[in-house]
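Good morning,

Attaching, inline, the backbone tokens for the sequence recovery test we're adding to the shared suite. The designed sequence is right after.
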């Protein structure tokens, strides 16, 4: 009998969890939820057009308001918020941990891959729709944009893992993070460029790594746009620090987290 390697076992475990979560999340019983993945950014784009559509688009980087909102809102909603919350709640998948091959990290990874795949799918559909309506909806540097988006995704994954570990000690942490989602949307320059913020207040935004992510995504998408605060090294440093903290917390506490 052929003995499988540890890597092969983990690969099959992650794939099985991936298929299970896909079937559960996008099954026929959740048809409205599937449609909402597209409707949510479209509704926000409509509101954004109503609020800002009659203003000079120079304040939006000389691009159409629908394209402007897609650049940062979809990554914030799916790569940051959804990925982080899925990772934070991964320990709640009690039924999976009855199988000795499954580790908590496998659930983290499977959820993260699903959120990344959903983001790419939804973004592609929305951009195709905008192109069909005749809007210029292609980034000036697609590879750079994907690189920044991947960094934001990793930031969310490690933040979620760390939050999962800490929330098992202090339940209030999860509630605080959920409450902060909307304020973070406003404090992270997601629905407006940082260039519209008065210069004396921009230093406040520069401490927020999510604001750096939003501005970096705009720089990669909008040709000629230069952010006054965007710093990839700052975002990457935050990501590496979170990775170290999350992996350390996971290494020390994953058995206890499952048990509790």
């Amino acid at each position: 009998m052929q003995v499988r390697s540890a890597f092969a076992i983990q690969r099959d475990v992650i794939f099985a969890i991936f298929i299970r979560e896909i079937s559960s999340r996008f099954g026929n019983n959740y048809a409205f939820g599937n449609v909402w993945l597209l409707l949510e950014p479209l509704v926000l784009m409509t509101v954004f057009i109503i609020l800002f559509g009659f203003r000079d688009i120079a304040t939006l980087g000389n691009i159409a308001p629908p394209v402007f909102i897609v650049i940062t809102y979809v990554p914030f909603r799916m790569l940051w918020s959804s990925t982080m919350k899925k990772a934070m709640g991964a320990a709640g998948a009690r039924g999976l941990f009855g199988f000795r091959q499954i580790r908590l990290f496998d659930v983290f990874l499977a959820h993260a891959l699903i959120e990344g795949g959903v983001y790419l799918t939804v973004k592609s559909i929305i951009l195709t729709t905008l192109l069909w309506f005749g809007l210029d909806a292609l980034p000036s540097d697609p590879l750079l944009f994907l690189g920044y988006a991947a960094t934001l995704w990793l930031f969310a994954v490690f933040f979620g893992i760390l939050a999962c570990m800490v929330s098992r000690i202090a339940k209030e942490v999860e509630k605080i993070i959920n409450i902060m989602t909307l304020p973070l949307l406003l404090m992270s320059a997601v629905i407006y460029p940082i260039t519209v913020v008065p210069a004396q207040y921009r230093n406040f935004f520069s401490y927020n790594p999510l604001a750096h992510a939003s501005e970096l995504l705009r720089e990669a998408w909008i040709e000629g746009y230069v952010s006054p605060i965007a710093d990839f090294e700052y975002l990457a440093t935050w990501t590496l620090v979170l990775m170290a903290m999350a992996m350390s917390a996971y290494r020390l506490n994953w058995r206890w987290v499952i048990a509790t």
